[in-house]
Write a structure and sequence with these properties.
This protein has about 170 residues and is mainly alpha-helical. About 50% of the residues lie in helices and about 10% in strands. The chain contains eight helices and three strands. It has a three-stranded antiparallel β-sheet, with no helix packed on it. Helix 2 runs parallel beside helix 6, helix 6 crosses helix 8 and helix 7 crosses helix 8. It is globular and about 75 Å long. It starts with a helix and ends in a 13-residue tail after the last helix. About 20% of the residues are buried.
């Protein structure tokens, strides 16, 4: 579904950019909206990362991010400039998000925060341990992240029930 969204045009390209950036970094709306170019950093040893103060917890975080995440942002602005200067939260923007999701033929109810959930779920599905995912999300307590592990457990149960053998007798076999 995330790939479907990536391939689907959105009426507000910056909204699409922000949503997909959240899905590949795990950042909350409140942290993306205030993100400045100076907070996106790179070192030879550590690669790309975001060093920022989390709005919700006020904690200073260092979040490693992929080169693809940085590339999604396009041309780098001035250090003091916001990465997404032209977007403000509104009911109108939420409506545009819903229209983009519908255009991608996705029928689930999706809010912007679901992109952060997607990041966590994809990390756990890919085998990243829960402690690391917790730190990537900036959670103070591991139990906050354990909600995502339950989602993964549900997926495992669904997968386990997909394989069924047919024990009916067929005289031709």
């Amino acid at each position: 579904e995330l790939n479907k969204l990536a391939r689907t045009e959105c009426e507000i390209p910056e909204l699409k950019q922000m949503a997909l950036f959240s899905a590949v970094t795990g950042l909350r709306w409140s942290d993306i909206i205030k993100l400045k170019w100076s907070e996106i950093q790179h070192t030879k040893e550590n690669g790309y990362y975001i060093q920022y103060t989390q709005k919700k917890t006020k904690g200073v975080e260092i979040l490693p991010i992929s080169e693809q995440a940085v590339d999604m942002l396009g041309l780098r602005g001035k250090p003091a400039d916001k990465v997404f200067p032209d977007i403000e939260y509104s009911a109108w923007l939420n409506m545009k998000l819903k229209l983009w999701i519908m255009k991608a033929a996705i029928t689930k109810k999706i809010t912007f925060h679901n992109f952060r959930h997607t990041y966590a779920t994809l990390q756990l599905t890919a085998g990243t341990d829960i402690y690391t995912v917790s730190k990537l999300l900036g959670h103070r307590q591991l139990k906050t992240t354990q909600v995502y592990a339950k989602v993964i457990d549900k997926k495992k149960i669904e997968a386990a029930t997909k394989i069924k053998l047919d024990f009916t007798c067929d005289e031709n076999e």
